[in-house]
Amino acid sequence: MKLAVWRALLTDAGFDVVWQGTAPMRLLEPSRLIADEGPIGFARFATNMIRRPEARRRVLAMRNSFRAHKADLSAVAMVAVKRPTQR
Q1: Alpha helices in 1-87 (DSSP H)
Q2: In this structure, are residues 74 and 27 in contact, taking their beta carbons and an 8 Å threshold?
């Protein structure tokens, strides 16, 4: 969904968006995995990929899909606060 749609969903649910940001979709890229999980977490992830060929195929398929559609994908973050209830 577009950023405006996410923002509208939050607004319609009674929240005010106070900050929003975007970043390139880098999920499942080795450098991102190390940054997110740390070296030990990344080593565990890599070990699981080696030990479980069916999981490796699924993860690599997802990563290839992210790469193929990178122009249309991004990471989105929003900070929203609940509006006070009117009485």
Answers
A1: 3-12, 30-51, 53-68
A2: no
Which of 76, 74, 79 is CA-nearest to residue 10? 79
In the 8-state DSSP scheme, what is residue 83? Answer: P
Q: What is the pLDDT of residues 44-58, one digit of tens each?
A: 999 999 999 999 999
The C-alpha R_g of the chain, in whole angstroms, comes to: 18
Residue with tokens 């995995």: 33
Nearest to 23 by CA among 66, 68, 80, 81: 66
d(CA 57, CA 60) in angstroms, rounded, equals 5
pTM higher than the cut 0.85:
no
Q: What are 10's two structure tokens?
A: 């939050």
Retrieve residue 56's tokens. Answer: 């490796």
